């Protein structure tokens, strides 16, 4: 399609969203003569607004009874817009092709605060280009209403697609590109530099992303103090395998307003990276370093500097963390609500005791696969953490039914208990069920049901 056709007042075809062999595109309503396939790739075409009245002979022959069945046309505009607000981007584009009224309603600015695209075969770069051009018609080259873009799992997204977002959407507040492994640092830098209101960024699974920073041009234009003030508060870098301490240092220095940070399976991160993080990002409430095998008790000492601000911590499968690290967290982070320490085999009853006595407001605890935790640790937990709602003891070899009964007798609000692969009796499980009536028990005992 030519540049001339791109400039016409038009609606993107559903072919932009669905590949030709998609079930949603092969039915009678989804088929269109205005889309074609070249070497297996869907090519998006643009369309003029539908006519006010459909003039197909078969439609003219419709009976009066059939016309009366179209009750949806009797709904007022605000109700139609409310219905359209539940549709994903591709379905909204289809609705815009039904008739002129639906066209006008489907392109109501209130419906285009979010673009959501999913699928491995979608030509996302092309889709974002066409959609942003359409949304920029009233304000040339600037899309002021778009605040959220979610293109998770779209593996064909490249830097070109992110450049489009960065240049056209200055009001962007949320961007999710998880699993899009073709994007690089440069495109991410452009987004955070040109979208000053961006608060939520999910680049999990983007293996080429090693840092979050401003572009060089933006850094030169801004003062050194202002240049560090990227507004991101939520950052998910799960499975960014090549992220290292130096990259985390840069992230911390530029994203000082972080409150939620997830670094799951960032296997190159060490205690030194956490030290950088705590220097700059003192407002973190939720932090995950699960499966970061180089994080040890020294890293826990750094995390403990967050003190009462820390509410959520995941250190699952960090094998170098022992009771010493747990003591640091328990001593300084008294308002901790969630702790995932599954697979930290160095944690014993002493660590659980110190945690229970200092973090009495704990609501969720996972100490599964901690073979050194026994009924003694559960007793300390039951006598101090009365607000406990979720407890996972999966594969804790030293746990017995006696420990579970003590927990059930004191933690009446328990809602989830995982005792899979634990040697507990049916009587103990029934005791838990009687005292914690809302509790869902995950177990592997075939005699209990």
Automatic annotation (TrEMBL):
InterPro entries assigned to the protein according to its UniProt record, in alphabetical order: F-box-like_dom_sf (IPR036047), F-box_dom (IPR001810), FBXL15_LRR (IPR057207), Leu-rich_rpt_Cys-con_subtyp (IPR006553), LRR_dom_sf (IPR032675)
GO annotation, biological process: cell division; protein polyubiquitination; SCF-dependent proteasomal ubiquitin-dependent protein catabolic process
Pathway(s) served: Protein modification; protein ubiquitination
Start-end of Polar residues biased regions: 1-13
UniProt GO cellular component terms: centrosome; SCF ubiquitin ligase complex
Family indicated by similarity: Belongs to the FBXL7 family.
Name of the protein this chain belongs to: F-box/LRR-repeat protein 7
Protein source organism: Neopipo cinnamomea
Taxonomy of the source species: Eukaryota, Metazoa, Chordata, Craniata, Vertebrata
């Amino acid at each position: 399609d030519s540049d001339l056709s791109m400039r016409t007042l038009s609606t993107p075809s559903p072919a932009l969203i669905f590949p030709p062999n998609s079930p949603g595109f092969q039915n009678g309503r989804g088929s269109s003569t205005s889309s074609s396939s070249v070497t297996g790739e869907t090519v998006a075409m643009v369309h003029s607004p539908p006519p006010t009245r459909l003039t197909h002979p078969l439609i003219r022959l419709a009976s009066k009874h059939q016309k009366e069945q179209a009750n949806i046309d009797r709904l007022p505009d605000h109700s139609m817009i409310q219905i359209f607000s539940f549709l994903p981007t591709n379905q909204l584009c289809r609705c815009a092709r039904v008739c002129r009224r639906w066209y006008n309603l489907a392109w109501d600015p209130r419906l285009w605060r979010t673009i959501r695209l999913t699928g491995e075969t979608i030509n996302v770069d092309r889709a974002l280009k066409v959609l942003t051009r359409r949304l920029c018609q009233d304000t040339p080259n600037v899309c002021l209403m778009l605040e959220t873009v979610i293109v998770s799992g779209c593996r064909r997204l490249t830097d070109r697609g992110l450049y489009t977002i960065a240049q056209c959407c200055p009001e962007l507040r949320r961007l999710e590109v998880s699993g899009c492994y073709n994007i690089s640092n440069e495109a991410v830098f452009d987004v955070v530099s040109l979208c000053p209101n961006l608060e939520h960024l999910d680049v999990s699974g983007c293996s080429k992303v090693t840092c979050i920073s401003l572009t060089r041009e933006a850094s030169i234009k801004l003062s050194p103090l202002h240049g560090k003030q990227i507004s991101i508060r939520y950052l998910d870098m799960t499975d960014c395998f090549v992220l290292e301490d130096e990259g985390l240092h840069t992230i911390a220095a530029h994203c000082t307003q972080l409150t939620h940070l997830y670094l799951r399976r960032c296997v190159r991160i060490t205690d030194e990276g956490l030290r950088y993080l705590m220097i700059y990002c003192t407002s973190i409430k939720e932090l995950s370093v699960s499966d970061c095998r180089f994080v040890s008790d020294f890293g826990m000492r750094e995390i403990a500097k967050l003190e009462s601000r820390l509410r959520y911590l995941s250190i699952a499968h960090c094998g170098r963390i022992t009771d010493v690290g747990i003591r640091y967290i328990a001593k300084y982070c008294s308002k901790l609500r969630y702790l995932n320490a599954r697979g930290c085999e160095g944690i014993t009853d002493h660590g659980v005791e110190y945690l229970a006595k200092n973090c009495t407001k704990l609501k969720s605890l996972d100490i599964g696969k901690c073979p050194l935790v026994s009924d003694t640790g559960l007793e300390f937990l039951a006598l101090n953490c009365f607000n406990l709602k979720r407890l996972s003891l999966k594969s804790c070899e030293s746990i017995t039914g006696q420990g579970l009964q003590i927990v059930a007798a004191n933690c009446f609000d328990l809602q989830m208990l995982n005792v899979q692969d634990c040697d507990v009796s049916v009587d103990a499980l029934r005791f838990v069920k009687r005292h914690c009536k809302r509790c869902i028990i995950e177990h592997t005992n075939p005699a209990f049901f």
